[in-house]
Design goal:
The complex is a heterodimer of chains A (604) and B (81). Chain A is an alpha/beta fold and 604 residues long. Helices cover 42% and strands 19% of the residues of chain A. Chain A has three domains: 240 residues, SGNH hydrolase (Rossmann fold, 3-Layer(aba) Sandwich), CATH 3.40.50; 156 residues, Rossmann fold; 173 residues, Aminopeptidase (3-Layer(aba) Sandwich), CATH 3.40.630.30. In chain A, strand 13 and strand 14 form a beta hairpin. In chain A, helix 1 packs across helix 3, helix 8 packs parallel to helix 9 and helix 14 runs parallel beside helix 16. Chain B is an all-alpha fold. Classes of the chains: A alpha/beta (604), B mainly alpha (81). The interface between A and B is medium-sized, with 18 and 15 residues.
Chain lengths: 604, 81
């Protein structure tokens, strides 16, 4: 058994025919049950012209990100029947993505050939009718299907019989087509289901005089020349990747000859190429392109073989460094091999290796990463650094279907974590460190709004979890309604930011003499800051106030919670029982349990 | 250097997904399953870019086997030894 991406990696060059045969091969493997498919998507394609080959090429390209698509290509020209008939295969196929490619020639052949046979008024009403034409089809689809709809806009022709005076027309032929595109874009701007695909932009990129080969058109109604089909499919991939959760989150960058020209260890800050010179401009622009992605939520990190001081000197002090130190969520500037560095970066940033794109000018480093970490996307930077930008812009793996406020905040959160670690290194003792953090712990009896997060914490927390009991949302709901149970949560903030709801205890209070802490856990993010002691202090002091004599705590060993084996003993509890299942600890409320002195807390 | 004949065989084998050695002058849509109307057009497009020539629609219609392709290329000045 092989995965699609393994088959992809074994195939070599990537011309149209290569993709065709790779796609066919994958389909054969799949039909023989020899393909291990982890991720799939159903795509329906409706087209007004012949699009033979698109399906095979899509299968081939999707294999590059380990997706095997199930594609239904409707007979060309049959889009109206497919859309209007609710019993058509389009709907029984139950697609996740429906691509609608209705081209200008197909809907307005005579207008294209004899545009000025239409009067101004007729051109204006053509605009209105055309938008309604598309809108009514889209309405039908969205009424009958929940699939995402990708609607091609119209390729605006480059020829007008008016020639150079086309632009002087009161309401010109080309203008009317541009207005269709503008109208469609505006109409679906706020839709989460319908996306307008800028096919006109695509045709411009390829070249409008190249994309349509009249011979192919007359022979077989082919309107995208076969050799450009991979380019078109690659555009569709931009939508398929986020739909199948294959979007990349993080760019890991080398420094020398990647972010600047030259080797800083040899030429120093003054010697590196970066800035408005022929050798330096490409690096400056490359950095700005990276910054623009960073600003919309893509994480950046550094993986470089260098003396850290040399490299940081450039990053901090070079006048044309567009990316500041703050832009990088984590850095590995050392003499370790790049593979181990990438692994530890992924761990520190807390993302999968399959979310990483790696840029390095050095072929050996790239090959090593490709060999040992095949899940990382390795960009083959050319020797000629003036080509970096075009390579960068051709990457289609950072697409997202919408931006959330999280995306904009993400970098701040990583930056705050980095600052915390740095502070930890620079302050001498733990309590000094904690004092400088300005920790505030907010203590809260759990209410129904918090149920999803509370259930999630019990399900996900492994290390700092005394009993590792998992609760569903329904379980938590019941406990909230139960007078004999209390759920207490903590939210931790510090001077770098808000860590959110990160700890909780579930207490059984049925017995008025003794309370039992059934669950006590803390999210990894805030381990090591004594926030747990605030939570425990709150519980014990509250027990005291309610004349409860004992607070019981339990430790149930799991594969991952050895960290807290001694938690109760180091907090004044006495072990009173130990069985295979669990240790039982008891705190006598005659004793005092104080809040940690340097942490502020607020009971909400 | 790759001869034009080698180039042509490689191209046909790649478009039709068949072994180069199985191709001869009489290879045609009649005896080759993968040589359908779509692959015929793909072949036209690939031949045009590989040999930097332009075929007319008449020429496309006149081809019924590999020998015809060679003759068409020869008419456009491509030399086969």
């Amino acid at each position: 058994m092989e995965t699609p991406v393994e088959v992809f990696n074994r195939s070599s060059s990537k011309s149209f025919t290569d993709y065709l045969s790779l796609g066919k091969k994958l389909e054969i493997l799949n039909s023989q049950n020899k393909l291990q498919i982890d991720s799939s998507i159903k795509i329906a394609i409706l087209s007004s012209s012949s699009i033979n080959g698109v399906s095979d090429v899509m299968v081939a390209q999707c294999s590059s990100f380990n997706v095997f698509p199930n594609i239904y290509t409707a007979e060309y020209g049959q889009y109206a029947q497919e859309i209007l008939n609710s019993k058509s295969h389009l709907y029984s196929f139950n697609a996740d993505l429906i691509i609608v490619n209705i081209d200008f020639k197909a809907i307005a052949e005579s207008y294209e050939l004899l545009p000025y046979q239409k009067t101004i008024e007729e051109r204006r009403s053509w605009l209105v009718e055309t938008i309604i034409f598309f809108e009514s089809f889209i309405n039908e689809i969205t009424f009958k299907s929940s699939a995402m709809v990708l609607l091609h806009n119209l390729a605006v022709p480059v020829y007008s019989p008016m020639g150079i005076i086309e632009s002087k027309e009161t309401y010109g032929f080309l203008e009317s087509i541009e207005d269709v595109n503008r109208g469609l874009r505006d109409k679906y701007k706020l839709s989460n289901q319908v996306f307008i695909y800028d096919f006109n932009g695509f045709c411009s990129k390829i070249g409008k005089t190249n994309i349509l080969d009249y011979k192919m058109y007359y022979l077989a109604d082919i309107k995208v020349k076969p050799q450009f089909i991979p380019d078109l499919c690659s555009e569709y991939s931009k939508y398929i990747q986020p739909l199948t959760y294959k979007t990349k989150k993080c760019i890991v960058l080398d420094l020398d000859n990647t972010l600047w020209g030259g080797i800083v260890g040899e030429v120093g800050l003054e010697g590196v190429h970066l800035g408005p010179t022929p050798e330096g401009r490409s690096f400056l622009e490359f950095q700005k392109k990276l910054l623009a992605l960073h600003n919309r939520g893509i994480i950046l990190a550094i993986n470089s073989k260098n003396n850290e001081d040399d490299a940081m000197n450039v990053i901090k002090n070079h006048p044309y460094m567009a990316l500041s130190e703050d832009c990088f969520a984590a850095t590995r500037i050392n003499w370790e091999d790049k593979v181990s560095n990438l692994k530890s970066l992924a761990e520190e940033i807390n993302i999968g290796l399959d979310s990483i794109v790696f840029f390095d000018d050095d072929q050996i480093n790239r090959d090593m990463v490709k060999t040992f970490l095949p899940e990382v996307v390795v960009v083959d930077l050319p020797k000629d650094f003036s080509q970096y930008i075009s390579i960068f812009e051709s990457l289609n793996c950072f697409e997202t279907l919408s931006l959330s406020s999280e995306d904009f905040k993400r970098n701040e959160m990583y930056q705050a974590e980095k600052d915390r670690n740095k502070l930890l290194k620079s302050t001498t003792t733990m309590s000094d460190y904690l004092r400088t953090l300005n920790l505030i712990v907010f203590i809260n009896e759990v209410n129904i709004n918090m149920i999803p997060r509370i259930a999630q914490l019990t399900q996900k927390t492994n290390q700092f979890n005394l009993t590792t009991k998992r609760y569903t949302e329904e379980n938590i709901q019941k406990l909230i309604n139960d007078n004999n149970s209390r759920i207490i949560s903590i939210r931790v903030t510090d001077k770098f930011g808000d860590n959110g709801l990160t700890g909780l205890a579930i207490i059984n209070t049925r017995d008025s003499i003794s309370w039992q802490i059934e669950t006590f856990l803390l999210s990894c993010r805030v381990i090591g800051r004594k926030a747990e002691e605030v939570l425990l202090a709150y519980i014990i002091n509250d027990a005291k106030a309610n004349n409860v004599k004992f607070v019981f705590g339990y430790f149930v060993e799991s594969k991952k919670n050895s960290l807290v084996r001694n938690f109760y003993s180091s907090n004044g509890f006495k072990k009173i029982d130990s069985t295979k299942q669990r240790d039982t600890w008891r705190f006598d409320t005659k004793n005092d349990y104080l809040y940690p002195s340097y942490i502020k807390y607020k009971v909400l | 250097m790759t001869s034009n004949n080698q180039k042509l065989m490689k191209l046909i084998s790649s478009v039709l997904n068949i072994d180069e050695n199985s191709i001869n002058n009489h290879t045609s849509p009649e005896n080759t399953e993968s040589w359908d109307s779509f692959n015929a057009l793909v072949m036209v497009s690939e031949l045009e870019s590989e040999f930097e020539v332009q075929f007319s629609i008449d020429e496309v219609y006149s081809v019924s086997n590999v020998e015809d392709i060679k003759n068409a290329l020869i008419r456009h000045g491509i030399i086969f030894n």
